[in-house]
Protein: UPF0060 membrane protein AAur_4166
Organism: Paenarthrobacter aurescens
Amino acid sequence: MTILKTTILFVLAAVAEIGGAWLIWQAVREGKAWWWAGLGVVALGIYGFFAAFQPDAHFGRVLAAYGGVFIAGSLGWGMLMDGFRPDRWDVIGAAICIVGVGVIMFAPRPGG
């Protein structure tokens, strides 16, 4: 259950953070209405709550592991929303990061 909860929260956090940053990007760089940026700020705030709901009690561990999710998620978002096509090095790098997420979050530790 912990792996499932952690995974779901990381996915929700990625959608909120990457989506929020993308909305701000659209307003600032692509000429969309400024209310897009406002929605982006709200989404970024929501991201913080998803991170705080992680079952692991250590902020540094959660945010370090989330960094790997952010990297892979950003490439995926770019593919879906902007037509970005990652090259093999992008994919290899993202895969390495996801392995790192697993090690950081789920490696057996003394004391449980």
